[in-house]
Write a structure and sequence with these properties.
Protein-Tyrosine Phosphatase, Chain A, Rossmann fold, 17 helices, alpha/beta, six-stranded mixed sheet, UDP-N-acetylmuramoyl-L-alanine:D-glutamate ligase, nine-stranded mixed sheet, about 35% helix
């Protein structure tokens, strides 16, 4: 074959794609404008894959048959524009992986919020039921690498809009769309509609043999369903209306049904708390049913799921004050969901690199539930302006240790401290994981 493929970007997605492409006989070249991490560089050398870092050899790149663009690289990138202008096909990692998945099934989960939680819960159910499965995608492990190194019968994949942008044939056997709210608009020409289309492209190539699980309570999803032709089998879930085929919650009972298999369960038995997690749990339950998992196994898995690190993670209770790490909440909607699930008086930690947040969205919840706001960031002016008339107290801090100390001072027995920043972490931390880990370390040091 000797088809020339260029891999742009050397993160997990890029390296995974390079390994799979090399295995399948492509002539592979990895190009990164920055520095390639040492362990990734060692993998490329070991697998005899040619690479460059700190710049791009344009002539070489523009002579390729195909380019796999890492999800972090925008279409506004000058090199990407040139690649498209000369007519070279640009594909995503999921497109490349899909070619070589064989008879394996893919459960793909997308949405603005709740992707990681729902993906992990579906994987937990599949694993508990004894399926040969892997957890892949935006959650941190490359699907291309998984297919190259340890193929499975099922891939449970968290898929971001960026990973859906350059698909040409990719279709998950089961697609889950949780919700759509404004996020990442800088990548979509500041047009919400472009972002919505990107999310819906998870259904683009689905057929009548596939399933589409979606949130019937989401107004954006409902509106766009009227404008699109979806070929797969619709399985809506709702907390507002009874659903014959799909799932709903009535009172304190969740009921899901696909064909003859019904699952019913009390929401009080869900391991994950909060209304948004009831939606995530319903979606996971329906997805598990589509791949033939029995209701007993689903019930057991839903009730003993431990949850994700940095997502509403209970860290510790110190002198009657509960500390919760929700560092993964990097947008205002995530913080809304976190606050909505709180039942104790709350000290709320906000701040970081603002992504154009409209803080009025959480104003009512702050009024009802928040005793004080502790800012954890370099520039907190926007937060202070938004909440100065609402929050009884606002304190500024610039490190995890100072933040935790300030929260502990403000809290009394029976209160909760919630780190749910609504912002990216890059002003003070490497990433949201680093922010969460430093927060947890500071709590455990009290």
């Amino acid at each position: 074959m000797n088809k020339k493929i260029i891999i742009l970007g050397s993160g997990e997605s890029g390296i995974g794609s390079a390994l799979l492409a090399k295995q399948k006989g492509y002539d592979v070249f990895v190009s990164d404008g920055g520095i390639i991490k040492e362990h990734y560089k060692n993998e490329l050398i070991k697998n005899e894959i040619e690479f460059e870092e700190g710049g791009h050899s344009e002539l070489k790149i523009l002579s390729a048959n195909e380019v796999m663009k890492s999800p972090g690289i925008s279409d506004k990138n000058e090199l990407v524009k040139k690649i498209r202008n000369v007519g070279i096909a640009v594909i995503s990692e999921f497109e490349l992986a899909y070619r070589y998945k064989g008879s394996s099934k893919i459960i793909g989960i997308t949405g603005t919020n709740g992707k990681s939680t729902t993906t992990s819960l579906i994987y937990h159910i599949c694993k508990h039921a004894g399926l040969d499965c892997a957890l892949v995608g935006n959650i941190g492990y490359s699907i291309a690498r998984q297919i190259a190194e340890a193929p499975k019968e099922y891939y449970v994949a968290e898929i971001s809009s960026f990973q859906l942008d350059d698909i040409q044939t990719f279709r998950p056997d089961v697609a889950v769309l949780l919700n759509i709210t404004e996020d990442h608009l800088d990548r979509y020409d500041y047009k919400f509609e472009n972002y919505i289309k990107a999310k819906f492209s998870i259904t683009k190539y689905q057929t009548e043999d596939d399933f589409f699980i979606y949130n019937a309570d989401d107004e954006v999803i409902q509106k766009y369903l009227q404008l699109l032709t979806i070929h797969s089998n619709p399985l809506p879930f709702s907390m507002r209306q009874e659903i014959k085929k799909g799932g709903h919650i009535k009172g304190d009972q969740m009921m899901t049904r696909i064909q003859e298999e019904r699952v019913s369960m009390s929401i009080y038995d869900f391991a994950l708390k909060g209304k948004h997690n009831q939606q995530n749990t319903m979606a996971a339950c329906i997805a598990a049913t589509t791949v033939g998992i029995r209701k007993e196994k689903i019930r057991e898995a839903i009730s003993d799921y431990a949850g994700l690190e940095h997502r509403m993670e209970s860290v510790a209770s110190v002198r009657g004050v509960e500390f919760i790490n929700d560092s993964k909440a990097t947008n205002i909607n995530s913080t809304w969901y976190a606050l909505e699930s709180m039942t104790k008086p709350t000290i709320l930690v906000l701040g970081g690199t603002d992504k154009g947040n409209d803080y009025s969205l959480i104003a009512e919840l702050v009024k009802d539930k928040v005793k004080a706001i502790v800012c954890l960031g370099v520039d907190n002016e926007k937060i202070k302006t938004a909440f100065k008339k609402i929050a009884p107290k606002i304190v500024e801090t610039d490190s995890a240790a100072k933040c935790v100390a300030a929260c502990f001072k403000l809290a009394t027995k029976g209160d909760a401290v919630l780190l749910s920043p609504a912002c990216a972490s890059f002003d003070l931390f490497k990433n949201y994981e680093d922010r969460g880990k430093q927060f947890k370390a500071a709590v455990l040091a009290l």
